[in-house]
Amino acid sequence: MSVESTETNPLRALSPQDLRAHAAEALTRARERSVALTSVDDEDLVRQHSKLMSPLVWDLAHIGSQEELWLVRDVGGREALRPDIDDIYDAFQHARADRPALPLLGPEEARKYVREVREKSFDILETVPLQGRRLTEDAFAFGMITQHEQQHDETMLATHQLRKGDPVLHAPAPPSSRSGPLPAEVFVPGGAFTMGTSAEPWALDNERPAHEVAVEAFFIDTAPVTCGAYAEFLDSGGYEDPRWWSERGWAYRSEHGIDAPRFWKREQDGWWRTRFGVYEKVPAAEPVVHVSFHEAEAYAAWAGRRLPTEPEWEKAARFDPATGRSRRFPWGDEEPTPDHANLGQRHLRPAEVGAYPAGVSPLGVHQLIGDVWEWTSSGFEAYPGFAAFPYKEYSEVFFGGDYRILRGGSFGTDAAAIRGTFRNWDHPIRRQIFSGFRCARDARPSEVA
Ligand code: AVJ
Ligand code: FE
């Protein structure tokens, strides 16, 4: 089987002018979102809403700082605007919990700083040659910085979810199910497939290179595990029974008094949750969100199943049995549209299972992209042939650490920051992120045929 063809590189078809326009548009969309997420009272901007998160005003200036570093100084070769604040906004220098105590730029200063950096970036984007240097080939650095801003926008959205008080974010409800009843699981044939990418222009270093991976035949859930199914686990005493939990998971649950997904509360008439300041009944048909890896793993054990490995998840999402090729997205090679997936904070919640029939994979798996990040059982490791680019601190320093891979993006992930190959990772105890999961199981010999 051949590895992916470079014909699928969608930016190679653009003229240099169109490529510049495309990058400018992506940067602008990210900035509109950052502005929306930071259009809150100054007090809300500088406060630390949770020890797990930075003050929003840190994220904002950090977005500008990374952009200054890569687009203004490196790509543009221009002089530093604010070399004095490099340290404050270096995520490796200060843990989130310590960031409020730093001499941060104030709200107006931070807004002015990111505006000034952006003006210079646009100036550079207009004139810098988009060839001859790997950083600017396919406008990669502009894509990388767009994704960085969108990733912090998702982080800021998680901060909003932790914020107490009346709602400040508003969005229409996502579509309801547009499918009939779905089969519980989908069969994925065994054999090699192409994992990762060498052709995707804005793929980050950890997604590269494309390589063959063999996977045994398995079954994967057609859709993410719903709140309704998860509530059955809860209501049958699943959180009180160590049988379902790993040793670490049980210790974590016991030490932290974890007794339901984050933001859930048991009322007389069932489960309720707080969602961006709204208190509401938990919707049974929606994918469960705000669970840790340990909780996902315990649910899977209770259900007599397991979490998918990272290669299994990617094969379910990308493998086309008709051609043997791996697609960019489950639905094909086209960029996501609102019909394909619940992405980009267009809605402030996951959509019901069955809401995106246009986004289904060739094998029939639903909602792999959008709605909720999906925990896999895999740790974060380099692909064979990995090379850090353009800096070790994006991926390489995290390889082999205490992380689990999450795939597919959530309702809070922008289309610019997700694709079939995109890899996210976090500590197995994390659940303030928009994390859910689906289950898998080995195929029995009699089922392989
Ligand atoms: C890839 C989502 C784990 O948000 O910590 C942002 C992305 N890296 N700034 C994160 C990132 C540097 C990263 N994740
Ligand atoms: Fe960052």
UniProtKB/TrEMBL annotation:
Originating organism: Amycolatopsis japonica
Residues the record lists as binding Fe cation: H62, H148, H152
Pathway per the UniProt entry: Amino-acid biosynthesis; ergothioneine biosynthesis
Enzyme class of the recorded protein, top EC level: oxidoreductase
Keyword NAD: no
Binding site for gamma-L-glutamyl-L-cysteine: R96, A97, D98, R99, D426, R430
Segments passing through the bilayer: none
Superkingdom of source: Bacteria
A Pfam family: DinB_2
Reported cofactor(s): Fe(2+)
Coiled-coil segments on the chain, per record: none
Catalytic reaction list: gamma-L-glutamyl-L-cysteine + hercynine + O2 = gamma-L-glutamyl-hercynylcysteine S-oxide + H2O
EC numbers for this chain: 1.14.99.50
Protein name: Hercynine oxygenase
Keywords: Iron, Metal-binding, Monooxygenase, Oxidoreductase
Sulfatase-modifying factor enzyme-like domain ranges (all copies): 182-441
GO molecular function: gamma-glutamyl hercynylcysteine sulfoxide synthase activity; iron ion binding
Role: Catalyzes the oxidative sulfurization of hercynine (N-alpha,N-alpha,N-alpha-trimethyl-L-histidine) into hercynyl-gamma-L-glutamyl-L-cysteine sulfoxide, a step in the biosynthesis pathway of ergothioneine.
InterPro entries: CTDL_fold, DinB-like, DinB/YfiT-like, EgtB, EgtB_Actinobacteria, Sulfatase_Mod_Factor_Kinase, SUMF_dom, SUMF_sf
Family indicated by similarity: Belongs to the EgtB family.
Domain DinB-like: 26-156
Gene3D superfamilies in the record: dinb family like domain, paralog of FGE (formylglycine-generating enzyme)
